[in-house]
Every structure is written in C-alpha cells, then in structure tokens.
Request: fold
Amino acid sequence: MTHTVADRFDRVRAIHHALTDTGPEPLRSVHLSDAAETLTLRPPTREPAMPLHAALDDRRSRYDYAPLDHEDLSALLRWALGPQRTLPTAGGGHRMSMHPSAGGLASTTAFPIVLRHIDGIAEGVYQFDRDAHQLLRRREGDVRGALTRCLVQPEFAERTPVIIVIVGELEATLVKYSERHYRTLHVDAGLAVANLYLVATALDLACCAISGFYDDQLAETLSLSESQIPLVAFAVGARRQVREQR
Ligand SMILES: Cc1cc2nc3c(=O)[nH]c(=O)nc-3n(C[C@H](O)[C@H](O)[C@H](O)COP(=O)(O)O)c2cc1C
Reply:
C-alpha cells in the first residue's frame, strides 16, 4: 500500500498521540513569550580528552548539579551533537553529525533549556544550530515554572542548570521513509543521548537522561510545530564533588 507523505504524517501523529503521556493537569498556557535572538556560542576551549574506556567506566546518571559555565555548554554541544564530516552532493555537500542517524538525516534537533543564567546566556528556551554553533532563543519568561509542569520529576527543573531536549523532526524522516521510521527517530535520539552522556562524562560534568515528561506540555513549552515531537531530555550541570553516586 502506498501513502502520500501527508497520509504518513497523519498516521504517525495519530500513533504518537496514542502513545503520549498527557500528565495530571490539563494543558495550560505557560507564561512564556516568544523570542527571536541569535547567540553565537564561544568556541569550545575544552576537549573531551578522557580515554574512551575511562569515560565508559566513569559514566553515571548523576542528580546533583553545580552551575554550568559557557565553555562547558559550548564544548558539550560541539562534541556530542555538533558537525562532523561533509559528504559531497549535487547540491554542494551534506554535513553529517557527531552522532549517527538513519540515512544521515537531520532527524533530531537539540533544544537546550537554560534554567540558571550562564555567563552570556540568559534563562530561556533555545534551539541549537549545530552548523553555526549558535543558540537561537525561542522563548523567554518563567522557563523553570513552565518546565516544572512538564516533568514527572519536577525536581529536575529546580536543580538543573540546563536541560537539553532532543526533538524528533517528523518531516525530515517521513519525506524519505515510511511510517515505521517513526521508531527510528527514537533510536537516533538514543544515540544523541549516548554521545551526550559520554562527552559530559569526559568533560567532568554531571548528567542524566530524562524520559519522564508530559509530551504535550513539553511541546508547548518548546513551541514546537506539528511535525516536531519531544523524544528524550538530558539534564546537565557541573559535577559536585561532595559525594559520588553509586
Ligand atoms: C532513555 C533514558 C531515560 C531515562 N529517564 C530517566 C528519568 O526520567 N528519570 C530518572 O531519574 N532517570 C532516568 N534515566 C536514568 C536511568 O535511570 C539510569 O541510566 C539507570 O538507572 C542506570 O544508571 P546509570 O546511568 O548511572 O548507569 C534514564 C536513562 C535513559 C537511558
């Protein structure tokens, strides 16, 4: 059976809707306003130079966070999710990412939510432009209050300096692949998070993946379009050395 791309969208959106966690509260408008500001991140000054075996061995989900500085966020985004090689194409070249994705498609976008002011980066919802190494500010206002209502464990919003949401781009995938690749988007997001875990560990940061969130609330907080879905989130801050986790 063949489906047009529009049919694919409708079917995938229906499947996604059936699988979403709506949360205890009805969807309420959050106190955020739209923003449009471009912020070029400082070039990373640190490299995740820890040997791979040491990073694998030291990686943990950590729940205590100290404030994050600009260079750490810049280095994390650059090395975990930034650009890698460029493949020649008729159109001039296709930039690949540090993490693989099915078909090399730009199937996910990272939305860093800055919950505690970072040097040169105000609190707000941002979209990471990996090629330009920029943050595009999309929303401002009470981001912590808004995110608290999105999370099954709202304490993440209280404790964490930055939460990076990996968003799936249905359009990027469904114009090429069939409906079943809705599932592949989640694999792509898992690979992005695996990179984030290892790079954060190698940069001596504290981090934890988060899948406990209410989809519609989070989509509204991020101001996502109909073809974007939040897949997984990732809390990150500097590491507190006071006590190590199990
Ligand atoms: C995809 C994914 C989603 C997760 N979601 C949550 C979450 O919502 N809340 C939480 O406290 N931990 C979450 N975790 C952390 C796991 O509980 C943790 O990875 C697991 O207990 C193994 O511990 P370790 O990461 O320290 O090895 C998640 C981990 C992964 C990989």
Q: What stands out?
A: Residues 60-61, 153, 208-212, 232 surround flavin mononucleotide (CB under 6 Å). The chain has one domain: 34-83+95-239. The CA atoms of residues 31 and 142 lie 6 Å apart.
